[in-house]
Amino acid sequence: MPTLLISSRIRREFGDPLQAAAGDGLRLFVSDPESPLTSQQLAEVDIALLSLDVIDQSTKTVLTPQMRFFCDQLRAASGLQWLHVPTAGVDRPIFQEMLRRGVRLTNSSGANAEAVAHTAVMGVMVLARGALKWIHAQREHRWTPLRGADAPGDLAGQTAIVVGYGPIGRSIARSLEALGLTVHKLRHSPQPGDAGQGIHGYARLPALAGSAQWLVMACPLTEATRRLVNASVLAAMPRGSFVVNVGRGGVLDEQALLDALASGQIAGAHLDVFEQEPLASDSPFWDLPNVLVSPHNAGSTAQYGDRCVHMFLDNLRRWVAGRPLVQEVARDRTLKSSP
């Protein structure tokens, strides 16, 4: 009989579906700081569901008490075999720690893909239409139409590079193509026939950068993508180009972007993710008039958490039946260092 570690909210709202998915052969242990599990109970945990309500406001490095407690229980669960997480990225230190320990890890890639893609396209539209200037003018009660030399150019006919071609990147690319842009899509491992569809490996980024007015990052942080977008890539783009990052902060060299924004090489940016989160209150990004900052919130929707649980339920049925798990993270997704 497998034993599952969950939050009190998941026990309350999904207890019956969990039991049904396991054929009633499942023990539920609740992570509760006010009623901690014993070391013996933790040793009996086979599976853990880290739900969105546990992560709550935690970042990779600043954890809420609830998240810190859950992480401590994962470390103490010596028999843990499988952990499901409510994110697509697996660069959080606790996820990396579990991978290195040999725990099987499944993610929730796709659960919020549409929301993240919508946010990225929002960033493109805000920057393309000069909306940040309207927002600043509204705060100052100034009537300043963007006309003449200040009028924005047409999006149709421009070129974008979307870095990362998973569920999020595919949705972004479809939306941008519908707006009339030519889109180059980059992913870790190109497949036969990809080039004919405008799909390339990450190594093509420097060569393609010179043709693109838009660079949209929607990839995970791996050893292959760390600082992939650096000073040379930004310098290769046409002057006055734009950057949108809804992937991971470590993919982008932030100082190189600040320098490019200061010189006008990059005309504006929408940044949802940063190397250090929360973003420090003294970060220059907060005050730049041509930068939209959002607090790693691109994928947030009211339905996101429940979709992650339903993904877990599908995998739980597979686990009980001895079938392969879907969206299992490869062991080589460990990072050399977890910031």
TrEMBL record:
Domain D-isomer specific 2-hydroxyacid dehydrogenase catalytic stretches: 71-329
UniProt xrefs under CDD domains: 2-Hacid_dh_1 (cd05300)
What sequence ranges are listed for the domain D-isomer specific 2-hydroxyacid dehydrogenase NAD-binding?
Answer: 123-298
Top-level division of the source organism's lineage: Bacteria
PROSITE patterns noted in UniProt: D_2_HYDROXYACID_DH_3
Please tell me whether the keyword Oxidoreductase is annotated for this protein.
Answer: yes
Alphabetized, the UniProt keywords read: NAD, Oxidoreductase
What protein family does this chain belong to? Belongs to the D-isomer specific 2-hydroxyacid dehydrogenase family.
| This protein's name | D-2-hydroxyacid dehydrogenase
